[in-house]
Amino acid sequence: MNEMQIIDTTSPITAIVYRDGQQCEAYLKALAYTLTADGQRVAGLIHQRRHRADRRKCDVDLRDLASGRVHVIFDDRGPDARGCLMNNGLLLSAVQTAEAGLSSDVDLLVLCKFGKAEMAGGGLRSIIAAALELSIPVVIGVPEMNVREFRKFAGDLACEVNLEETRAEGQPLVTN
After folding, report:
1. How many CB atoms lie within 10 A of CB 23?
2. Are strands 13-18 and 108-111 parallel, antiparallel or unpaired?
């Protein structure tokens, strides 16, 4: 396996715990594309940054790994907006589209983030459940500040890998 991978094949869910969101985004993207290039069937939703000179933030969309489709999930509040407003309807649509493409032929589900929507009971939770029902392993980014809520959700179905510590220690990124 490629060194870009942090996958614990003994757990249905591998949580990539991180402090630096952009580092985790880069890791998840590289993981998905490396596995796909190696012939693995990868599905899921990862962040895709869209850079616009007139915006301060909220330029993050979701890319469906199976179809390549890009889903806008934040409301455009204009160039002077100081905060982001995720549109739960758009997120739900992206999740439903990705979930509809799941099958037992998928080798891995890669998801960008266990965030506010998931902590509130929505977001990516349904696609995680669908993957588990099909015995598809899941890799998901989990910000350090959300670990407690993630543990409540995943229970003993998940293992946690700290992205920064693993990379700093030079540990192999695949475990069995």
Report:
1. 15
2. unpaired
d(CA 39, CA 138): 17
Burial class (CB in 10 A: 0-12, 13-18, 19+), 98: buried
Q: Rounded to an integer, what distance in angstroms lies between the CA atom of residue 128 and that of residue 158?
A: 12
In order along its 176 residues, the chain shows pLDDT tens digits of 343 445 666 799 999 999 999 899 989 998 899 899 999 999 999 998 776 666 666 678 899 999 999 998 888 777 777 777 788 999 999 999 999 999 999 999 999 999 999 999 999 999 999 999 999 999 999 999 999 999 999 999 999 999 887 665 554 343 33
Q: How many residues does the chain have?
A: 176
CA distance 28 to 33: 9
* 12 to 86, 115, 160: CA distances (angstroms): 28, 19, 11
* 0.85 surpassed by pTM: yes
